[in-house]
Amino acid sequence: MQQTAASQGTEEREITAERIFNAPIELVWKVWTDPRHLEKWWGPNGFITTTKEFDFKAGGVWNHIMHGPDGTDYRNDITYTLIDEPNRIEYDHGPSPDFHVTIKFEDDNGSRTRFSVQMLFPTKEERDRTVEKFGAIEGMNQMLGRFEIYLSDMKTEGGE
C-alpha cells in the first residue's frame, strides 16, 4: 500500500480499522452521528454509554461516560474539529488517553459504505499504553461489530 505524505512515519502511533457496511452512506452517517443511536452501540461489548453533552459541529463537543461491565466509568471528552457530511469526521479525544481521530465514509454503489477510522496518538508509547491498559484494538473491533449489528437492525426496521 502506498503511503501519503501525511501518513508517512505515523504507523507506530496509529490504531486503524476498515470495514464495508451493507448500508447506504446516509444511514451509516446517521447512525454514527445521532446521539439517540450512538448510545445504543458505542463502546466495546458489555459497555453502556451515557451522553452528558452533544453538539455535533466543528468546535462542538460530545462528552460521555462509558460504563464498563465491571462497574468502572470511563470519561470521554470529544471535540469535533471537522464535519464534512457525509464523508468525514475528525475529532480530538481526551482527557486520557489523548488522540486525534479521522473517520472516512465512502459511498460504494449506493447500497454499501466503505468506512475507515484512524486513531493517531502523540507518541508510540501513548499508543502502546492505550492498547495495553484499555484493550483499544479489541475494543475498537468489538465496537465496530456492535455498530454493524445495530446498523443491520436499522435497515430491517426502515432506518429510523
Topology:
Layout: E1 14-21, H1 25-33, H2 35-41, E2 48-54, E3 61-67, E4 73-84, E5 88-94, E6 99-108, E7 112-120, H3 124-134, H4 136-157
Antiparallel strand pairs: 1-7, 2-3, 3-4, 4-5, 5-6, 6-7
Helix pairs in contact: 1-2, 1-4, 3-4
The neighbouring-strand order within the major sheet is 1-7-6-5-4-3-2
Instruction: Find the structural class using helix and strand composition.
Output: alpha+beta
Count the DSSP helices: 4
Shape: globular
* Tally of discrete structural domains: 1
Which CATH architecture would you pick?
2-Layer Sandwich
Measured as a percent range, the helix fraction is 25-40%
**N- and C-termini, Cα separation:** 38 Å
Give start-end ranges of low-pLDDT stretches: 1-7
CATH topology: Alpha-D-Glucose-1,6-Bisphosphate, Chain A, domain 4
Could you tell me the radius of gyration in angstroms? 15 Å
Q: Specify the biggest β-sheet.
A: 7 strands, antiparallel
CATH H-tier superfamily: START domain
Mean pLDDT: 92
Please report the total strand number as a whole number: 7
Q: What is the ordering of alpha helices and beta strands?
A: EHHEEEEEEHH
CATH class descriptor name? Alpha Beta
